[in-house]
């Protein structure tokens, strides 16, 4: 009967373990618009209907570029930023498992041999061997909140990994498209230089028969040399982009060479249509938003842990072992000893340490909530930015394509007039320069449209929602 009271206390404490000194976590609310402001104006946007996939499992395949797909496959496996994030995710999983350890008793073994002497008495030896078990009863939810914190942190690191992958993928895609635009610019300049060479030859022939001046030859030479210089300058920018791509796929620049692959016709470049749902879906789709939300859950659980420290802890301890002054008698029945009982410990005076820790935890929670809400509205802004940019660049591209058309017509007519001797060469130089500028500007706009398209894919969350099953 002498064991009934301690056992009853233990059982009663286990019932109390369902108590908590802090409220359960709920995701912070945030008022979101019903639709994107720019979605009604951008023609390439289509709201996804139930049953249709949002984006695609590998969104970059929509661009139908085999080389881009191959590069992204390498980056997903070898990019060092992704590998760092993957290691952090594994660390998060391990810490989550560690947080669950106190849910069960901890059992440790011990053995000792000691020798002591008191005054002039002979020295004595003592031998001990046994096991000790301890189990903290989760009266105030400290252990439960630790588990919740660990699991939420692991989920946040998983979202961090997805966010890093999406960032690397979109950066690589944008860099690759810029490289292809530079290839197209180089092809344009080389082709234009060949045209200018023919113009120079025509002017030289006219000069030889007295129909052109030396000034016209100098103008033709200047135009040709400037164009060649621009073509050379593009190779420097291209080399830097190629080096950047090598680093993104985890290689030194010396190990990657990408053959020139210009777009044959700007008109043939088409952007994939975008199917995505409404702004509220970003809460599930975007990994950075998911990571921020999970860190709010971590901060909430940390408040529970800090609050639990204000109250006493109850630990159930048990030990079983042997203790003897003679090693030969160590494992005998008279040397056996055991103990079982609860221990209650609580703060008496800590100079407001635990209270301050609680206030700090609440402040961290408030900061995490604000960070989450800021991340959400930043995500919506990025979608709106790129929808607006795509809409505006599409209109600009149409106008610029018309400018190229009329510039070509002006070049053709002016060159014919020059050959007929009824126009000065200065007019030829002007219209040829205008055509080159118009064509280069059209390629620049096309590159910006490709970049904005990739940025929109990333702003909508890429493949994250489908891969996580959300």
UniProtKB/TrEMBL annotation:
The keyword Membrane applies. It is a lipid-anchor. The keyword Transmembrane helix does not apply. InterPro entries: MdtP/NodT-like, OMP_efflux. Its main location: membrane. Keywords: Lipoprotein, Membrane, Palmitate, Signal, Transmembrane, Transmembrane beta strand. Residues 1-23 form the signal peptide. Pfam families: OEP. NCBIfam families: outer_NodT. This is Efflux transporter outer membrane subunit. It comes from Methylophilus aquaticus.
């Amino acid at each position: 009967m002498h064991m009934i009271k301690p056992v009853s206390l233990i059982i009663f404490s286990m019932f109390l373990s369902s108590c908590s000194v802090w409220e359960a976590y709920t995701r912070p609310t945030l008022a979101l618009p019903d639709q994107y402001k720019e979605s009604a104006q951008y023609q390439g946007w289509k709201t996804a209907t139930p049953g249709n996939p949002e984006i695609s499992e590998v969104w970059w395949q929509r661009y139908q570029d085999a080389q881009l797909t191959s590069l992204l496959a390498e980056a997903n496996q070898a990019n060092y930023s992704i590998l760092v994030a993957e290691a952090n995710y594994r660390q998060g999983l391990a810490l989550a498992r560690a947080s669950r350890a106190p849910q069960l008793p901890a059992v440790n073994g011990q053995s000792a041999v000691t020798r002591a002497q008191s005054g002039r008495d002979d020295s004595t030896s003592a031998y001990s061997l046994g096991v000790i078990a301890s189990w903290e009863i989760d009266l105030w939810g400290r252990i439960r909140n630790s588990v919740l914190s660990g699991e939420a942190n692991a989920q946040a690191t998983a979202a961090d990994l997805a966010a890093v992958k999406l960032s690397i993928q979109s950066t690589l895609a944008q860099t690759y498209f810029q490289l292809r635009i530079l290839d197209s610019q180089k092809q344009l300049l080389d082709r234009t230089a060949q045209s200018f060479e023919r113009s120079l030859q025509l002017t030289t022939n006219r000069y030889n028969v007295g129909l052109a001046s030396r000034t016209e030859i100098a103008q033709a030479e200047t135009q040709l040399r400037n164009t060649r210089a621009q073509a050379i300058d593009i190779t420097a920018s291209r080399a830097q982009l190629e080096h950047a791509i090598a680093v993104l796929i985890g290689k030194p620049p010396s190990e990657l060479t990408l053959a020139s692959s210009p777009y044959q016709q700007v008109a043939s470049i088409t952007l994939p249509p975008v199917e995505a749902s409404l702004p509220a879906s970003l809460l599930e789709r975007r990994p950075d938003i998911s990571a921020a939300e999970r860190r709010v859950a971590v901060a909430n659980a940390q408040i529970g842990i800090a609050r639990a420290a204000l109250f006493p802890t109850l630990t159930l301890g048990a030990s079983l072992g042997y203790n003897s002054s003679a090693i030969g008698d160590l494992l005998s029945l008279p040397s056996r000893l055991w103990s079982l009982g609860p221990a209650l410990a609580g703060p008496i005076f800590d100079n407001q340490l635990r209270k301050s820790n609680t206030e700090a935890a609440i402040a961290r929670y408030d900061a995490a909530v604000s960070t989450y809400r800021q991340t959400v509205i930043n995500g919506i802004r990025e979608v709106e930015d790129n929808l607006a940019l795509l809409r505006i660049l599409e209109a600009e591209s149409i106008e610029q394509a018309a400018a190229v058309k009329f510039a070509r017509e002006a070049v053709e007519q002016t060159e014919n007039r020059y050959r007929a001797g009824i126009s000065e060469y200065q007019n030829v130089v002007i219209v040829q320069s205008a055509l080159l500028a118009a064509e280069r500007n059209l390629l620049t706009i096309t590159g910006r449209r490709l970049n904005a398209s990739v940025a929109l894919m990333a702003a909508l969350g890429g493949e994250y929602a489908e891969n996580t099953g959300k």
